[in-house]
Amino acid sequence: MIEIKILSCRSAQRYAVRQRLVAAKRDLQNEDPSLEITIMEFKDWVQIEPYTQILAAPSLVVNEKLVCEGRFPTRQDVLDWLRSALKNDRS
């Protein structure tokens, strides 16, 4: 199971990042249909602050590890992070 948190105070940014995550999730689930990926959105600074001080730009947390801070990740970035998390989860 992979747990992803999108961190941003701005809904448009969370939406854009979510679209990339959903596309990557679909790719990975085509490879492994039993794969479970949960995507959550954190929009309140109280929820975001334990992970990063950057509130305005999007950040991503995968399995409680901050993998992207203050930028929009590429689809390939997301796939790489998710594959790495999956590999670590199965080790």
Can you tell me the overall shape?
Answer: globular
Overall mean confidence score, pLDDT: 92
* First-residue to last-residue Cα separation: 13 Å
- The CATH homologous superfamily is called Glutaredoxin
Tell me the strand order in the biggest sheet.
2-1-3-4
Account of the protein in words:
With 91 residues, this protein is an alpha+beta fold. Strand 3 (59-62) and strand 4 (65-68) form a beta hairpin. The radius of gyration is 12 Å and the shape is globular. The relative contact order is 0.25. A four-stranded mixed beta sheet has the order 2-1-3-4. The protein contains three helices and four strands.
Provide a quick synopsis of the model.
This protein is α+β, with helices and mostly antiparallel strands. It contains 3 helices and 4 strands; from the N terminus they run βαβαββα.
How are the elements arranged and paired?
Layout: E1 2-7, H1 11-31, E2 37-42, H2 45-48, E3 59-62, E4 65-68, H3 75-90
Parallel strand pairs: 1-2
Antiparallel strand pairs: 1-3, 3-4
Keywords for this entry:
91 residues, 3 helices, alpha+beta, Glutaredoxin
